[in-house]
Amino acid sequence: MNVRVRNYHLDGYGHVNNARYLEFLEEARWAFFEEHGLLSEIDGLMLVVVRTDIRYRRAAVDGDILRFEGRLKELTSRHIILTQNIVLPSGKNAVEAEITLMVVSAESGRSISIPEPLFTLLKQYAEA
C-alpha cells in the first residue's frame, strides 16, 4: 500500500502528525486482510489493538509517497503480533511499529481464542 502525504496530514511543524501514522498503519492492516481474503473470516469478530509500540524514525512531509511493509511476527491462540514499517521515498523508515491484536467476539464483547479457520489462514503468513 502507498499513501501520498497531503497537507492535512501535517502538524504545525510541517511534518506528518504522529496520530496520522496510527491511522495509516490501521489502513495498511485492513488492506492486508482485504488483499489476502481474510475479511470473510473476521465476520462477527473484532480485531482489537491491545498494544502499540511505535518508533518515529524520520519525518514525512507534504508530497512524500509512503510505502507500507508488514509482517506477521507472532501468532498464538490469543494474539496476533504484527510488525509494520512506513518507508519514505529515500528507502529509510519513517516509522517502525509492533502492533498486538486480540480477537473479540462482536456478540459478547469478550476476547476469544482465534477461531481455527482464521488461525490456519494467518499461520501461513507467520515469520519462521
UniProtKB/TrEMBL annotation:
GO terms for molecular function: fatty acyl-CoA hydrolase activity. Gene3D superfamilies: Hotdog Thioesterase. Keywords: Hydrolase. The keyword Hydrolase applies. InterPro entries: 4-hydroxybenzoyl-CoA_TE, HotDog_dom_sf, YbgC/YbaW. NCBIfam families: YbgC/FadM family acyl-CoA thioesterase. Belongs to the 4-hydroxybenzoyl-CoA thioesterase family. This is Thioesterase.
